[in-house]
Structures are given as structure tokens and as C-alpha cells.
Design brief:
The protein has 209 residues and is mainly beta. It contains three helices and nine strands, in the order ααβββββαββββ. The strands form three sheets. The chain has a four-stranded antiparallel beta sheet, with no helix packed on it. 22% of the residues are buried. Keywords: Glycosidase, Hydrolase, Secreted, Signal.
């Protein structure tokens, strides 16, 4: 996108894969009848060489990227994307505060983590925010820097706030262990990141299992 840094360009309306009502929906957004709340389901790089997956015409393809796909690759290599995974703009603003975490580990590789965060519509228009939860595993787990483990879309009136809650169970807290050929919850310190995209983290908190 060589044109993206032009000073006259303030935002980009990206319709993705629109349907038959795309004309009406885009008109509603451009005229302000609807406050947009869409989010990118992938990462858009600044240049093609930033992506780790290349075109391969061979009959046998080796997936050398392993777990480092999409935003996980950009995070692991500290590459700044043009637009990060989960990104999206609104005609209002949202602030995050008061992240609370509670972790409990039981027997037989069971665990449960609950989290809550207060999100306020601090702008002048009603709008919807997509609150995203990313988890960083203990370093010994060998996982990507952070992985998406949940998201909630909430409609908040202007000036109002709401509490968004997440629950992470054994499935979300586990990794695949090659040696035992089973899902296991690694021991150590985890960090839960709450934000508006993979690169727009507003609140973070740690817990130990």
C-alpha cells in the first residue's frame, strides 16, 4: 500500500467479502448512520516480504512456519504490520480499566481462569467494541508470544461502561505435548492480555499454574 502514508488519507474502509447489501452497508458507514465495528481476521503487512509463508508450486509442501502463522509470526519476529490482526476503527473511543484475574488449578490436568475488565465508551457516539483476550504461555512451553483465546463484542452507549468477562478452561490453557502425545497445561507464569487488536493491548495481568 504505497499510498497509505499520504497525508490526505485518514482511514480506510475495507469491505472484505461483501454480500448483495454491500452498497447500502457501505453508504450507512460513510454517512455515519452506522458506527462501524468490524475487525480484521488476518494481518496486513507493510510489504510482501514480511510474510513468512511464500508461494510454493512444488507437489510436496513443508509447513516450516509451524505455529508461527499470521499475527504470531509478526509478534515472534517483532515485525510491525500495516494493520494488525483484530484491528478496526470506530467513530467513538473506548477505554479499558480494572482488569481482574482469578486462577485455580485442580487435579487431573484441570484448571480454570476467570478474568474481567471494565470497558467504557469515552466518546460521543454509541458504538460496539470487540474486546480480545490473548494468552502468553510460560516460556518453557515453546508457544508463540501470544495467542487469541477469546473475544466478546459489546454494544456500549456513549458515556457508559460495562464489565466484560472471559473464562479460560483446560482447553484454552493447554498445549500439545509431543512426548506424551496429549494435551497438557504447562507449569509456570502465564500472562493474559486484553485489548482492541493483537497490537493494541490495553490491560495485562499474570497468574501462575
Amino acid at each position: 500500500m504505497p499510498w497509505i502514508d499520504h497525508p490526505n488519507i485518514k482511514a480506510v474502509v475495507w469491505p472484505g467479502l461483501p454480500g448483495q447489501e454491500s452498497g447500502n452497508s457501505l453508504a450507512d458507514i460513510l454517512t455515519g448512520k452506522v458506527n462501524p465495528s468490524g475487525r480484521l481476521p488476518y494481518t496486513i503487512a507493510k510489504k510482501a516480504s514480511d510474510y513468512n509463508a511464500k508461494i510454493d508450486s512444488s507437489a510436496k509442501i513443508v509447513y516450516k512456519e509451524k505455529l508461527l502463522m499470521g499475527y504470531k509470526w509478526f509478534d515472534a519476529q517483532n515485525i510491525t504490520p500495516q494493520f494488525p490482526f483484530g484491528h478496526g476503527l470506530s467513530y467513538t473511543n473506548f477505554t479499558y480499566s480494572n482488569l481482574k484475574l482469578k486462577a485455580k488449578k485442580g487435579h487431573n490436568n484441570k484448571a480454570k481462569v476467570t478474568a474481567s475488565v471494565v470497558v467504557k465508551n469515552s466518546g460521543s457516539l454509541d458504538g460496539a467494541e470487540v474486546v480480545q483476550a490473548y494468552l502468553s504461555f510460560p516460556e518453557s512451553a515453546g508457544e508463540p508470544p501470544k495467542v487469541l483465546r477469546g473475544f466478546e463484542k459489546v454494544l456500549i452507549k456513549k458515556g457508559k461502561k460495562t464489565t466484560v468477562k472471559f473464562t479460560l478452561g483446560s482447553t484454552e490453557l493447554s498445549i500439545w505435548d509431543i512426548k506424551s502425545s496429549s494435551w497438557v497445561i504447562p507449569s509456570g507464569q502465564f500472562t493474559l492480555h486484553i485489548g482492541a487488536s493483537s497490537r493494541d493491548i490495553r490491560q495485562s495481568g499474570s497468574f501462575t499454574l
